[in-house]
Predict the 3D structure of the following.
Amino acid sequence: MQQSHMSKIKLAGGVTAGSRLACAAAALTSATFVVNLNSPISAASGQVTPSVSNRAPEAQLTSATVTLPIVMVREFPFVQGEIAGIKGKFMLDTGMRDALVINDHRVQLSGGTRIGSGFFGSGQTFDIRLHAAVDDIRIANMRFPRVTSVRSQDARMLEGITPDFLGWIGYNFFRDHALKLDYRRSRATFYKKGPQQYLRGEKVVVVLPFQTRKLPNHPLLMAQIGGLDAIVSLDTGMNGALYISNADRTGLLANGHLKPTSEPDAFDTTGVRIANMVDITLQSLEVQKGPSPASKSIGVTENTELELGYAFLKQYKTVWDFRQKKLYLLSR
């Protein structure tokens, strides 16, 4: 497959039933990963498929404070784990709504109910399946003897990032907690209590209130790039990308806010102001013609979308408090 510098990895995390989410596989290939989820009534079985919120209920945090070591592979945070004796890594991905999704190309699972389908850009198809139970799961030092209603799908493309890719842990894994992400110290800490706990001993740079639209796990903030109105979407499962019209791209190039790099479609980006509170510069940002593949699913209607992941998050420690809808930027 043709190599590409594309930076976003996203499958169908949190996609509503019947939606199509086409996403580029980051830094691997220009092929597209398309996922179709059936309606809540499974055509294959006639049984009601549990909603995303009710999947993998055992794989959700219950302790007041939990710290997980993370392993960075390029721009992606992973957590070491194991499924039925098969060791590997789970991506910590706020953009994935399910608490747990298994890469069934790496971990062979029998049975399961087909709840959707997908295909790679090459045309090869795969099934999205829901399994009544998966036994013997370990995420860092947490063990889950049995997890019920677990989704799986073929994610072999992400094995190009790390060959031992087991799957994802997503928003519902920690939805009752705030997430503090510290790339420098390689750890993610989850807090059931509020700011009085997770801000203790920290220096707050700025607090960014955010909104969500169609999906609760996709924070959105208003921004400007060189005076051009844009919306920012935040997600740990990517590096970052700008989706923009050709005319607006030409304008940002003319005023110097986009500067070409040695990589095709990658630009150093200046003049970014988020929520009229923080100014940032981004290096080697992927720039593509909009809209983004995920825009419809998360409710983005603006013409210019700036997706921010590691390219932005690495500049700070961050606290994601979805309960208060606030993103805290902390000194590293």
